[in-house]
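Re: that backbone. Tokens:
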């Protein structure tokens, strides 16, 4: 049985159930315009499509409810390219007035209970004010794995609330882009809960600097308006399934952003915590194994940017910002940099001297206490034991270490200081206090 190019339109109180007998290669699409939409799509076989590209599943009006259940292998839902850039496979648009204390908005439930299933592009939009006009979505992908979620976007006007729950069972799963946007007004909570069961990604506990960030293990959380999170866990040819990666992202405040995070690694440890407004974390691909990254941003308008490339292992560092308009950049190509795993303790020489008795200085930590500070640190080589502290306002650090076992300790305990350094070779040591 093939359910192909099915078009359904309604303007009032429509309850719809589409059920196909157990068979393969069914196709379905949906177009509902008006009010009080309710649709159920059941596809029991394999290789079924619901909302193919160019034949979307669309509900336009207010109070949209859509449930999709697929129980076989290699099923596909909503195969638009990218909901963030406007190409969607599932589109729910809520608008218009609603009765007081009446729960309206968009509700979506997707269950794919077997293997090799995909969800392409999901877009939920609610332009109406009011705390009862929220977007909610649940995506469950079971079986032994090889599932894919391309993009999910939830956007809400004032009196905000977006919620998303994602569960992926098995191995070789991928989540590419999850975005939540919301306007001014209201006290609604934006929430993302992502669970990946395969090969122990996100199933352990954050440790080291990742735990020190204050982030919650395996939870992506947003509190406020205008937040967005993109998280990707990918493999490489020699690591077909990343294993034992631990992650946690917590955003508390307004308009905080975490851009795309890609973990091409094993045993990576990533914790990001933001408590304030308009803070931004920009992370490129994290390559290599056993890298530990912690980022903490307190107060407003801080920027942290991280780039780890190559096959380096054992890099460990922390960007710790407490103030406003601070920016910190860390670029690493090599192994055991920051507070690395194998080089033991031991600042020596001038680097050790300038840090003696300074509580806030810590090896592997780029720390900023104050406002309008900037630090740009690059590590090319192995075993560079960097650490910096800026306690004051409008300080600038620019540093490059090109070689192995270099050390640096920059303390700027005042305002309007500038430090530039470059160490090339082996075993160089720095110091500096201003």
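Recovered sequence:
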């Amino acid at each position: 049985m093939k359910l192909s190019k099915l078009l359904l339109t309604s303007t009032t109180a429509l309850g719809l159930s589409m059920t196909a007998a157990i068979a393969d290669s069914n196709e379905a699409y949906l177009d509902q315009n008006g009010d009080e939409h309710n649709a159920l799509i059941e596809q029991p076989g394999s290789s079924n499509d619901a909302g193919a590209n160019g034949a979307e599943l669309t509900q336009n009006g207010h109070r949209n409810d859509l449930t999709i259940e697929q129980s076989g292998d290699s099923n596909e839902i909503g195969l638009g390219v990218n909901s963030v850039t406007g190409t969607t496979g599932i589109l729910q648009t809520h608008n218009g007035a609603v009765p007081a204390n009446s729960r309206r908005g968009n509700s979506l439930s997707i269950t794919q209970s077997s293997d090799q299933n995909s969800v392409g592009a999901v877009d939920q939009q609610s332009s109406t004010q009011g705390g009862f006009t929220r977007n909610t979505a649940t995506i469950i992908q079971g079986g032994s794995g090889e599932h894919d979620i391309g993009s999910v976007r939830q956007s809400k006007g004032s009196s905000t609330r977006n919620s998303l729950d994602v569960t992926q069972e098995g191995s070789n799963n991928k989540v590419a882009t999850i975005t939540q946007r919301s306007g001014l007004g209201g006290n609604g909570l934006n929430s993302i809960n992502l669970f990946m069961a395969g090969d122990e990604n996100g199933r352990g506990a954050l440790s080291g600097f990742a735990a020190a960030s204050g982030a919650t293990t395996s939870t992506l959380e947003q509190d406020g308006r205008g937040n967005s999170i993109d998280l990707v866990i990918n493999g490489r040819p020699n690591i077909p399934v990343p294993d034992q990666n631990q992650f946690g992202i917590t955003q508390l405040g307004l308009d905080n952003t975490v851009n795309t995070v890609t973990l091409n690694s094993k045993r990576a440890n990533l914790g990001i915590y933001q408590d304030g407004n308009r803070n931004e974390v920009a992370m490129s691909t994290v390559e290599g194994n056993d890298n530990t990254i912690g980022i903490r941003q307190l107060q407003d308008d801080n920027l942290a940017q991280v780039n780890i490339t190559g096959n380096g292992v054992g890099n460990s560092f922390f960007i710790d910002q407490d103030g406003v308009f601070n920016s910190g950049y860390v670029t690493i190509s090599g192994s055991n940099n920051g507070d690395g795993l194998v080089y033991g303790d031991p600042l020596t020489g001038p680097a050790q001297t300038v840090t003696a008795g300074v509580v806030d200085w810590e090896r592997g930590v780029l720390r900023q206490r104050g406002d309008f500070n900037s630090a740009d640190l690059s590590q090319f080589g192995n075993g560079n034991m960097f650490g910096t502290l800026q306690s004051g306002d409008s300080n600038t650090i620019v540093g490059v270490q090109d070689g192995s076992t270099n050390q640096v300790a920059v303390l700027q305990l005042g305002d309007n200081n500038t430090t530039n350094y470059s160490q090339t070779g082996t075993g160089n040591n720095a110091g500096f206090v201003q």
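The first strand starts at residue 14 and ends at 19. The mean pLDDT is 77.
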